[in-house]
Structure formats: C-alpha cells, structure tokens
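From the pipeline queue, job 12 of 40. The input is one protein chain; the requested action is below.

Action: predict structure.
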Amino acid sequence: MSITLPNDMADVVGGKVQRVLRGIVGAFVIWTLAACHHPTPSASIGVGNPYPVSSYVCDGTRLAVRLMGESASVSVDGAAAIDLPAIGNSGTTFSNGRQTLLTEQGRTSWAVGRAMPVACTGG
C-alpha cells in the first residue's frame, strides 16, 4: 500500500525538504570556510619597539636585555625582568647594587655582587 499526496501537497512538502537541505548545505559551507580562515600573523616581538630585546650568554647565564637610555631591563635565565638604573653620564653601566650590566664599545659584561664582570656573547 502506498500513500499518494495530491500534487499541491507534494509540491509543498518537496519545497520544505529542499529548503531544509539548502540550509544544511549552507551551514556546512560556512563552517568549512570558517575552518580554513588563517589569521594574519602578528608582528615579531621587538619589531616597531623602540627598545628591542637582545639576548646574551654570560658564563652560562642567559640574559634578555632591553636598553632604555636611563635604565636597562634585564631578565636573568627567563625570570621576571629587573630594572637597572644607569650609573654615571656615559650610559654604559647599569646597576642596582647587586647586579651590574656593562656595555662598552660593542662588548657586554655581567656581574653579580662584587664578582668580576664576565664577558657575554650574543647581542
């Protein structure tokens, strides 16, 4: 036994089914396009920054240094950065009394406490 719908009713049911199928396909297309979206890469760290970070290794100690004129911001072995004020007028020695950073003629040195400064590589 089969049920036959009058032609008008078959057209109405067929139209509703087509709208539902179009909605499903449309949603699928939108989800697919959204999944393919690649965000614009952001600028590299330090790009456009007036105080870029320089990396050094000083006798096994890793430093991330940002020279800012009146002070230097220094992160030691990945720890939170500390601010070292400039000492003297030359702007090449930065110290808080415990840690000292020296930057003279393209050479960088690092000292902790009263120890002799050790030469750093990198930059």
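Job complete. The two ends are 87 Å apart (CA to CA).
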